[in-house]
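ok so i was messing around last nite and threw this chain in just to see what happens. nothing serious, just curious
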Amino acid sequence: MISRVIYRLDTAYPSAEDRAAIEEYLATADARRAALDEVRQAAGPVAEKVVADIRVRYPHFGRHRSSGYDKGVRDVQLLSNMAGNAMFLGENDTLDDMFTHWYKTILKGVHMSPQFMADTFAAWQAHLKAALTPAAWGLLRPHVEHLSAALSNLPVPARDETGERKAVAATA
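result:
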């Protein structure tokens, strides 16, 4: 947030609006730092739970991707940390520039279906919400929703390598 304000600063001094935005961000810096620490501690266990859900919902995924579940744990942990970093920065622009567009091209290239991604992100959001305090989740939620929407917006692949979807009762 601060880097965005400074980057677009046209004068030597910030406007009243920019100054107010900076002050608002600084007032929440301690809460954001505490939430970032929570996210980093929860990232591993959340990733394990998300992949456990995907194993149940997509039992044949392993046939198409032999190391897919292991890489999935790593990737969900990365997503959690990236969302936490965006939350700490107070904006998604840096996240999109550094990560989102690059990662979306990978998901397209490995033929992940939109439904698979939607199921994965729904599980990710549910497990993050359960693992974090309400205050941390409140700060993190907009960034998680941004990542989920951006990365779920995939074309239907010519060859779906996620396997057959198994109907499972929703977990919350």
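not much to say yet. The mean pLDDT is 84.
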